[in-house]
Every structure is written in C-alpha cells, then in structure tokens.
Amino acid sequence: MAPLSSLLVTGCLLISTVTAAGTETPFLSFPSPWTSMKGDTLWWEAYIKAADFVSQLTLTEKVNLTTGTGWEADRCIGTTGSVPRLGFRGFCLMDGPLGIRYTDKASAFPAGINVAATFSRRLMRERGEAMGEEFRGKGVDVQLGPVAGPLGRVPQGGRNWEGFSPDPYLTGVAMAETIGGIQSRGVIACAKHYILNEQEHFRGSVDVRIDDKTMHELYLWPFADAVKAGVGSVMCSYNKINGTFACENEWVQNYLLKNELGFQGFVISDWGAQHTTLGSALGGLDMAMPGDGGPQPYRAWWGGALTEAVLKGDVPQWRLDDMVMRIMAAYFRVNTGTRPEINFSPWVNTTVGPVYYSANASWQVVNEHVDVQANHAAVIREIGAKSTVLLKNLRSSALPLSKPASIAIIGNDAQDPPGGPNACKERACITGTVAMGYGSGTAEFPYLISPATALKLRAEKDGTVFSNTTGNWDLSAAKAAASNASVAIVFAAATAGENFISIDNNAGDRNNLTLWDNGDALIAAVASVNPNTIVVLHTAGPVLIDYARTHPNITAILWAGFPGQESGNSLVDVLYGDATPQGRTPFTWGKSLQDYGDAQLMFTSPTPRTPSQSFPEGVFIDYRWFTSRNISATYPFGHGLSYTTFSYSNLTVTKNSSVAGRFPPQVEGQTADAPLFGSIHLEDLEQHTAPEGFNRISPYVYPWLNLTTFNSNVTASPAVTDFPKEAQDPSAQPILAAGGWQGGNPALFDVLFTVTVDVKNTGDRKGVEIPQLYVQLGGNNNPHFVLRGFEEVPLQPGETKSVSFNLTRRDLSNWNTDKQNWEITSDKKAVSVGASVGDLRLNATLPL
Ligand SMILES: *[C@@H]1O[C@H](CO)[C@@H](O)[C@H](O)[C@H]1NC(C)=O
Ligand SMILES: *[C@@H]1O[C@H](CO)[C@@H](O)[C@H](O)[C@H]1NC(C)=O
Ligand SMILES: *[C@@H]1O[C@H](CO)[C@@H](O)[C@H](O)[C@H]1NC(C)=O
Ligand SMILES: *[C@@H]1O[C@H](CO)[C@@H](O)[C@H](O)[C@H]1NC(C)=O
Ligand SMILES: *[C@@H]1O[C@H](CO)[C@@H](O)[C@H](O)[C@H]1NC(C)=O
Ligand SMILES: *[C@@H]1O[C@H](CO)[C@@H](O)[C@H](O)[C@H]1NC(C)=O
Ligand SMILES: *[C@@H]1O[C@H](CO)[C@@H](O)[C@H](O)[C@H]1NC(C)=O
Ligand SMILES: *[C@@H]1O[C@H](CO)[C@@H](O)[C@H](O)[C@H]1NC(C)=O
Ligand SMILES: *[C@@H]1O[C@H](CO)[C@@H](O)[C@H](O)[C@H]1NC(C)=O
Ligand SMILES: *[C@@H]1O[C@H](CO)[C@@H](O)[C@H](O)[C@H]1NC(C)=O
Ligand SMILES: *[C@@H]1O[C@H](CO)[C@@H](O)[C@H](O)[C@H]1NC(C)=O
Ligand SMILES: *[C@@H]1O[C@H](CO)[C@@H](O)[C@H](O)[C@H]1NC(C)=O
Q1: How far, in Å, is the centroid of ligand 4 from the Cα of 690?
Q2: Are the C-beta atoms of 324 and 54 separated by less than 8 Å?
Q3: Quick one: 774 and 789 in the same domain?
Q4: How high is the pLDDT of residue 718?
Q5: Which residues line ligand 7 (CB under 6 A)?
C-alpha cells in the first residue's frame, strides 16, 4: 500500500544517502543521564505519575512506547505502540511547525520566520496557543515543532523559514514562547532538528565538525531556551556531528542535552535518522520514528530488537526504563484533562478508510473532519500584518495608501494559485502567490486569500481603479499595465523547502539569492515606467535587492515572508495603514552571497559518500559577520520602518551588585544512581512473545521477540563489546559546572544589569517601535554586537515610554571550553540600544 514513490514524496524517510549501519565509530565517554526531579515542579509532579505508571509495565509494553509502528502503519505521521492492558493508546505525532500537515479544517499559520519578524513575544505565544488547540482538537499528542535547527547558518538554507532567525537569542525567545503556547493546550512540543542540520544538501550523511564554543554560543543556545521552557520532546537530526549520527551521538544527546541542559523529556529520531540498536539506545535516543526501516527479523532497530537487546543485557534495564520515564513524564507534564481521540488520518482524505494504511486494514470512519480553526484566522491575519517588514518607504506619501486613483497589480506572486492553494503537493511550486515554503513543514491551506483578491476588494471599496496583470515573462504587458497607474504594486517570490523535492533544480536549499520566475526583471521593468512602484516580496529569506533600495522609482519595498492563509488581508492591512507596520527583518539582506562570508552552503563534496563540513566562520554568521567585517548590508538585521518616527533618549544602566564573579556559582553534588521501575523476568522468553492467537497486522512493528532468530546477532552491530563500560554504568553522575537545572545552571539566569531607555513617538501617527539591545562582549573572538533584548512598544503620537531590558549572566558570558563553563571574560563590555544593528542610537559601558 505504500509504494516507493509515496516514501519519496513524504519528506520523512531518507533512503538514499544513509551510511550503512555498523560503519560508525562507536563512541563513548558520555553515558546517558537518567531523568530525575531536576527541574520545575511540573516535572517533579509528572515524574511521580510517570514512575507509578512505568512501574506497572512489562518489558514489551515499555518497548512498545519507545518504537513507532511503521511508516504509514497507523493514524498519524508517527504512532508508537500502545499498552492495551492499561487502556493507554499509542502516541500520535504529527508535522509540523506551522500547523497540522495532511488534514482538513485546520489552519495554515504564518511560518516561523514571520513570527520572528514580529519581534512580539505576545504573538509568538498566541500562535503557539492556537496551534496547540488545533493539534489537540485532532487528537494529536506531539506537535513536531518548533524549529531551531536549521538556525540559518546559510541564507539559502532550505528549511530556514520553518525556524525563526539566524540570531540565537531571537530564536531562543521564539522557541520558549511557542513551546509555552503549544504545551499550555495539552500538546507536547518537539524542539527540532537537534542539531546542526543547517543545510538540505547531504543532510542525511554530512559530518559536521564543530568546536565547542560555536556549539554553545550559537547552535545550542535556542535549544537551551526550549529546555528551560519545559519542552517535552526534542527531535534529533539526520546529520552527523563529529563523526557520529545525531540520534546516536552521546556528546550532543547525553552530555549536552540531558546532562548540561538538564532535559527531562524524550528524544525522538527524525524519520529514518536512527541507524543502530545499541548506538542509539546508549547514545541517548528515547523514541524511534517511524519505527520500521531496520534489519530483519524485526524490520526495526528497536521494537523486538530492543526487547532482545534488553534481555541479552546489551541495553541495561535502567536505560529502557529511562526512555519510557522520559516519554511518560512529558506526557503527564503536558497532558491535563481528558486525552482526546485521534479523529483523522493523514493518509486519506475520504471519511472512510483504513486505520492501518500500509496494511490497508480495518476500514472504518477515519476522518471525522473536525473543524479546529476556531477564530484563529484573526491571529493569523494579525501576525501576517505585523511580520511584514517595511524595508523602504521613500516618500512618506508612498505608504500608507489612501484611496489612490488607480492601482496596478503585477506578477504571478499576487495571484490565486491555479488549481487551488493546495494544488501542488507539499506546496512545491510558485505558480501563484507563495504563502509558505515546501516540504514536510507545511499544512494544507483551508483557504488562501491572495493579494490580488484582497487588493481588488479594497479598491472597490475605495473607488480605486483596479488592474491586474499576470505572466512574469511578458515584460511589455507588465509595463503597459504599470505605466498609467498611480501606484504599481509588483510581486515577486523565492521559495525553499526540504530536499526530497527539487523545484527547477533547487534541491531544498536555494541555488542562488535572486528572485524566481523572472522576478528581478519584472520589478525593473515596472520601475522603469512607474515612479510610484511598490515591491512586495514573498521569500524564504534574503534576496539580492540592492538595485531596488537605490532605485528612485521604487518608493516602497515590503518583505511579507510566508504569511499563511490570510496573506492578502494581512498585506492590505499594512499597505493601507489599518495595521501599523512593526515587522523587523530577522536576517541580514546582503548585497551578494559572498557578503555572508565563510558560512557557505556545501553543494558538492570532494568525498560525496562521506561528506564533511567544518563551520570555519565559528560564531560569525549573518549580522555577526557583517558587523565584524564592516560589510554594509542592503538592509541590516533588525531593520524595519514604521509610518511614524521614534527617538531614543536617557540610556541608564543599573547594576545588581548582589550577583558577582566571573563564573556562576555551581550546583554542587551528583545525581542519584539510575533507578529501575519494575522488574524484567529473564527466565521465560515465551512471555516476551506475542500472545497465542494474536492477529498481527502486516506490515507493522511489534515489541515481541522472534524466538526462531533469538540467538543470532541481529541487534549487535555495533556489538556491545564495542562500547566502553561507562556506557552501561548506572552509578551516580557528577553535576556539570554549566548544568544543574532545566536549561543549565540556574545562576546563568541571574539578572546582572538592567538597562533602561526612553522611546518617544516623534511623528503624528500611532506606531509600534521595537527597541533592540545589543551587547558588545569585547575581545577579538566576539562579534561586535549580539542581540540580547527587544521589546514591542506601542506609542501614541508624542508619547514616551521607558523600556527596561534585563541582562542575565548568560547574556554576558562566553563559553570557556577548557573549564566547560560559561565565563564573563575580563574584556570591556558595552551595550547599545537602537532600531536595528545598523541604527544604534545610544551606547553605554557596563560597569563590571
Ligand atoms: C503494542 O502495541 C500494539 C499496537 O498498538 C498492540 O497491538 C500490542 O498489543 C502492544 N503490545 C503490548 C505488549 O502491549
Ligand atoms: C568536535 O570536533 C571539533 C573539530 O575537530 C573539535 O574542536 C571538538 O573538540 C570536537 N568535539 C568533541 C566533543 O569531541
Ligand atoms: C521470525 O523470523 C523468521 C526469519 O526472519 C521469519 O521467517 C519469521 O516469520 C519470524 N516470525 C515472526 C513471528 O515474525
Ligand atoms: C488530500 O487533499 C489535499 C488538499 O486538497 C491534497 O493536497 C492531498 O494531496 C490529498 N491527499 C490525498 C491522499 O488524496
Ligand atoms: C484496500 O482495501 C479495500 C477494502 O477492503 C479494497 O477495496 C481495496 O481494493 C484495497 N486496496 C488495495 C490497494 O489493495
Ligand atoms: C487577475 O488576472 C488573472 C488572469 O487574467 C485572473 O485569473 C484573476 O482572476 C485576476 N484577479 C483578480 C483579483 O481580478
Ligand atoms: C536563481 O534560481 C531561480 C530558481 O531556480 C531561477 O529562476 C533564477 O533564474 C536563478 N537566478 C540566476 C541568476 O541564475
Ligand atoms: C522612472 O519613471 C519614469 C516614468 O515616470 C521614467 O521616465 C524614468 O526613466 C524612470 N526612472 C528610472 C531610473 O527608471
Ligand atoms: C531617565 O531614566 C531614569 C530611569 O528610568 C528616570 O528615573 C529618569 O527620570 C529619566 N530622566 C529623564 C531626564 O527623563
Ligand atoms: C554471534 O557473534 C559472536 C561473536 O562475534 C559469535 O561468536 C557467534 O557465533 C555469533 N552467533 C551467531 C548465532 O551468529
Ligand atoms: C527583570 O528582572 C527583575 C528581577 O529579576 C524582574 O523582577 C523583572 O520582572 C524583570 N523584568 C523584565 C522586563 O524581564
Ligand atoms: C554607538 O556605538 C556604535 C558602535 O560603536 C556606533 O556605531 C554608534 O555611532 C554609537 N552611537 C552613539 C550615539 O555614540
């Protein structure tokens, strides 16, 4: 029932570039930490409930909860086995970060990159809450989002738009707010893809060699915020890190995530990112997805293979218990109230269909078509408007529009997609307006308001003459339409996505930074004839538009990103001033690809079977590179105009002298020994096999032993003897200097300084300013500026507000690799506050 072609278009399974199992260099100096009550009271309470539940489980029931039942085997993108004896159904996991993939009557939210552009904690939270309500309403346990990996090392990164921003601080805030929102509605969030999955090319095989400082200061940073926010699950990524696949990687999973960051939840493999039974179990994986894809006789790396490994003593019982404790603790932490039934199937659109899709079995009502959209269109429209970045507004007369005599709408990107908004599978085309990228991080649009439709409606209301031209290659038609209009609005796009789909030879990552579908020529043609040309861009990230910045006829440029289902309405709100533009660009607009420095995408590898990458730029990506190398950007990070103007004054710095010292005070001591929950009976192998007469679904992954093959060596590649003794060691572990609590050492979050600034609206319209706080950490190895604070400040004309930013110990520290700890260096430190990293208005030094 699941032909190969369907595997190829689903975006989850990775078949081509996976290295053969067993060729990994087994590790290990970082044994797996076990859950404890190291975290907030929600984790403690959940831990106690989980301990009670897990203690009742048999070996195969435990294994069931760790392993997916197979690709397309069940009702969700991923479904684990269940515990029928206790009436506990398997976990239902669903894509994706901007809404529910593959279902109807659910919303298509703005992409992560858009909510980052709002710089609004409130909107980040509200989007999370609304998404959580929708997943919950369909009966989903785990939403596979939000995304902090890719962080956005390279501007062409195919999945950058699913995440937030190449700035780790902004991404960290967005992660925490999104997770808080999702989980407040009873759905476990999943922080993904952990970690260094920074490009789509070679994602399943590339070995990223990364130094410890870059890891901590850049890529791990937002995941620390996710853990601090109480995230219930983390998805390990496809790539390797320092020689070992992420999902088997003791350094990133055991040492960094579970020990240093004190993560109490569970790690899920990306679909097909698990490669061995023991390496993943001892390396810190807790849930295998989609569950099948391993060797015979179990067709799985876990399932029966894990049961066998535990019975043979290759995987100690405490490690299995810890996997299940982590899964159930996350469940009890987040799931309050009655757990809803799963009421849809991602694999069919019909009401009646197979419950077990790959087996084509058990036909019944699978899609109840439950409408979960509520009033979420309102927050979607608001985010769409408030994430639109007004990059240029040449004359204040250009925007906002006020009953123009005529408008000409030009470009395919303004139009309703022919065939409907979901005509292209996984949204992999740009035949109409682009409102999300493509791949598994998509949702079905319930509807899509195109810019042309919304602008036409508005024009009719205002008595404005409306004209509309499609066809990006017919430049004379575009010019003819534009030349007589009082305003010409020209639309262009550049999309990106996941590499299981290529568009125009772009294999997920963009091949270049120019607009698609003749967009640059179209803009130039329109601007050559109309002195009031407004450019609207729907792009996955930066494009090269310096020509438009300097062009005298281009009076305004707006980046609208991937705004979701309300695209046209959001845009009209901004263009006509019903919403005040507050979007600020969450990435830097360079003048060339070379401007982004050493952070370059690897398109080809000299060793294509074993591709490897070092990140030579270290922490210097995006604006960290531009500012440190004095490269002038077309538009700098944080830039975005308003319809009014603001002034800054009275920067004051207050020191909290009760917290001092270069290193944070350490949480002392060590953990307890690894606990066991219930006992496993080794004597009788029969009891770990399927009950007599059990009617198996096929194909399907079960936790039971196959006694015919029990004495072969199927599970042991790498063999248990390849691992050092520590990998199995249940004795207490020391608490790390940088660890001790959820998110790391709690002293990292002590407030050392409070910075206050007065912001005034100096124009005659109300507006929202986003004052940004940048820190100079000093010395030669730091970027000139790092973002460490922002606020959303609504102001009436003439109004002044005082805005405060707290600077924590973490905000002012660098990672000291030798000491394995955060340290406030002796370098002179300063703060700057302003409207973007390129527009710093006030400076002060920090009296350390
Ligand atoms: C494991 O889960 C499957 C699927 O939900 C179920 O049929 C089976 O009975 C479960 N096995 C045990 C031991 O509970
Ligand atoms: C990973 O590799 C980098 C580059 O070779 C090295 O600097 C770093 O120490 C390694 N990290 C670990 C944990 O081995
Ligand atoms: C056990 O494994 C053998 C060999 O792969 C296979 O023929 C048999 O069907 C398996 N039994 C079960 C119950 O899966
Ligand atoms: C279900 O409908 C959506 C939206 O129309 C479409 O994109 C998708 O391909 C359909 N899926 C199946 C399995 O027919
Ligand atoms: C799946 O099962 C249905 C109902 O039993 C049947 O009509 C259909 O032909 C089957 N499809 C395939 C591909 O076997
Ligand atoms: C714009 O023009 C296209 C092509 O003629 C047409 O299909 C579409 O309906 C028009 N849009 C509006 C809003 O009039
Ligand atoms: C960049 O890629 C897009 C999409 O493939 C293509 O349309 C465009 O022509 C390319 N630009 C250049 C300069 O090659
Ligand atoms: C701007 O538009 C006018 C038409 O109004 C045109 O004559 C002029 O050449 C354009 N300027 C540029 C730089 O294209
Ligand atoms: C400057 O800010 C401080 C702290 O917010 C405040 O106490 C003081 O009154 C302000 N001074 C002026 C001149 O506004
Ligand atoms: C399992 O592996 C061990 C060690 O490599 C070997 O001695 C033994 O014969 C193998 N057993 C089977 C059944 O292949
Ligand atoms: C700043 O820190 C103080 C003390 O920790 C806290 O009371 C206050 O709420 C914080 N303010 C902001 C804006 O986070
Ligand atoms: C603040 O510092 C930055 C960076 O050194 C500088 O570009 C800017 O001009 C300074 N602003 C003021 C008001 O001194």
Answers
A1: 36
A2: yes
A3: yes
A4: 78
A5: 504, 506, 511-512, 514, 516
Structure-block tokens of residue 641: 């105009």
| Binding site membership of 804 for ligand 9 (Cβ less than 6 Å) | no
Count of alpha carbons within 13 angstroms of residue 115, beta-carbon side: 31
Residue of 360, 697, 698 with the most ligand 5 atoms within 8 Å of its CB, for mutation:
360
The CA 5 to ligand 5 mean position distance, Å, reads 19
Which segments of 56-120 does DSSP mark as H helices, in order?
A: 59-66, 112-117
Same domain? For 138 and 211 the reply is yes
Q: What is the mean pLDDT of residues 170-193?
A: 99
Residue 153 covered by a domain: yes
- CA separation for the pair 690, 711 (Å, rounded): 18
Instruction: Give the number of domains in the chain.
Output: 3
- Strands (E) located in 465-532: 465-469, 487-494
Nearest-angstrom CA–CA distance, 89 and 342: 10
- Whether 179 and 294 map to the same domain: the answer is yes
30 within a domain of the structure (yes/no): yes
Could you report the per-residue pLDDT of 581-634, keeping only the tens digit for each? 999 999 999 999 999 999 999 999 999 999 999 999 999 999 999 999 999 999
Mean pLDDT of the chain: 94
104 occurs within a structural domain: yes
Question: What is the rounded distance in angstroms from the CA atom of residue 682 to the CA atom of residue 688?
Answer: 9
684 classed as catalytic = no
CATH code at position 25: 3.20.20.300
pLDDT value of residue 845: 97
> Ligand 6 pocket: which residues have CB below 6 Å?
452-453, 456, 468, 470
What CA–CA distance (Å, rounded) separates 209 from 507?
A: 23
Cβ within 8 Å of residue 580, ≥6 positions away: 642, 643, 644, 765, 766, 767, 768
Same domain, 631 and 658: no
Q: How confident is the model at residue 396 (pLDDT cuts 50, 70, 90)?
A: low
Q: Are residues 198 and 162 part of one domain?
A: yes
What φ, ψ does residue 339 adopt, rounded to 5°?
-75, 120
Q: Is the CB of 60 under 6 A from ligand 1?
A: yes
Q: Is 650 near ligand 9, meaning CB less than 6 Å away?
A: yes
The full 3-state SS of 691-757, as one line of letters, equals CCCCCCCCCCCCCCCCHHHCCCCCCCCCCHHHCCHHHHCCCCCECCCCCCCCCCCHHHHCEEEEEEE
Using 50, 70 and 90 to split pLDDT, how confident is the model at 25? Answer: very low
- 186 CB less than 6 Å from ligand 1? no
Residue 322, C-beta contacts closer than 8 angstroms, at least 6 positions apart: 32, 34, 35, 286, 674
Q: Is there a domain that residue 708 lies in?
A: no
Query: Of the bound ligands, which one is closest to the alpha carbon of residue 615?
Result: 2
- Ligand 4 atom nearest to CA at 422: 7
CA proximity to 291, closest of 145, 78, 19, 76: 78
How far is 455 from 558, CA to CA, in rounded Å?
15
Ligand with minimal distance to 754 CA = 11
User: Are both 492 and 410 inside the same structural domain?
Assistant: yes
pLDDT reading at 331 higher than 50: yes
Q: What is the pLDDT of residue 726?
A: 86
Q: Which of 167, 207, 225, 270 is catalytic?
A: 270
